[in-house]
Amino acid sequence: YSHFVDVGRLEMICGPMFSGKSEELIRRLKRTILAGMPTIIFTPNIDNRYAEDHICSHDGKKLEAISISHIEEILDYVKDDTTVIGIDEVQFLDGEIVSVIMKLVNSGKRVVCAGLDKDFKAESFGQMPELLALADDVTKLTAICMCCGRPANFTQRLIAGKPASYNDPLILIGASESYEARCRLCYQIDR
Ligand code: ADP
Ligand code: ZN
């Protein structure tokens, strides 16, 4: 037995919007920070308008984070003594997400990622399926359906209050869109 060798680990936290992914990520990382484990947190700089310097849950919990556009930028910040790496909204990052993350895991780091498993079309989001397959641990959260109160696995995009179109782009910036958590019965897409 060798209890104290750094065995890397990938933890994925997924689910629809409002399911508490950021809350859960923040909860896990606050514990590693309190335990004195060198922890670095990243968040995608989605629209490049301003650099976010924290990750934030919908109910206002926050942790300091580094804003990046491409996954490769992580490698500039992670040092040999870094043991825990957190990434929020991982589905939005460009680049070789899977190979960069697995490189860190294989070098003994604990990587904890939160991200949407499905996009607004209810299809799997980008490289999330591969990350979920490679993960050592997957937590799939549900929200509460805003229409009926059932457990919600879907992210409903609304444009001016109406269900979005299937042909809309995946990432809308500055549009008058809003999102709700919905169950399979209440989720709608305009085809
Ligand atoms: P995510 O990262 O998955 O989008 P957050 O961690 O940012 O979720 O926010 C979760 C919080 O959102 C909940 O604790 C609750 O306060 C709030 N919330 C708002 N709408 C809903 C909903 N429909 N179902 C569950 N929680 C909701
Ligand atoms: Zn419902």
TrEMBL record:
Active site, UniProt feature: 89 (proton acceptor)
| Transmembrane regions | none
Q: Where in the cell is it found?
A: Cytoplasm
> Which key words tag this protein in UniProt?
ATP-binding, Cytoplasm, DNA synthesis, Kinase, Metal-binding, Nucleotide-binding, Transferase, Zinc
GO annotation terms (biological process): DNA biosynthetic process; thymidine metabolic process
Q: Which residues are Zn(2+)-binding?
A: 145, 148, 183, 186
- Identify the residues that bind ATP: 15-22, 88-91
Annotated protein name in UniProt: Thymidine kinase
- What is the organism field in this record? Holtiella tumoricola
Q: What is the lineage of its organism?
A: Bacteria, Bacillati, Bacillota, Clostridia, Lachnospirales
